[in-house]
Design goal:
This protein is mostly helical and 56 residues long. The protein has one domain. The protein has 2 helices and no strands.
Length: 56
């Protein structure tokens, strides 16, 4: 029983992998939001840049 308690204590203290996974999920979410925004707003941004380029 002591071995099981020692393993549980060891795994409960190791939280580095959990933090890394959380950062990876946040990064993936930001990337998905950026891609969706570019898909929906890409043509509008392109037309604005074209207007600026022709006025220059």
């Amino acid at each position: 029983m002591a071995v099981v308690n020692a393993l549980i204590a060891r795994f409960s203290q190791d939280e580095e992998g959990q933090g890394l996974a959380e950062y990876a999920l946040i990064l993936a979410l930001i990337a998905i939001v950026a891609i969706v925004a570019l898909i929906f707003l890409g043509s509008q941004v392109s037309s604005i840049l074209n207007t600026v380029a022709t006025s220059v």
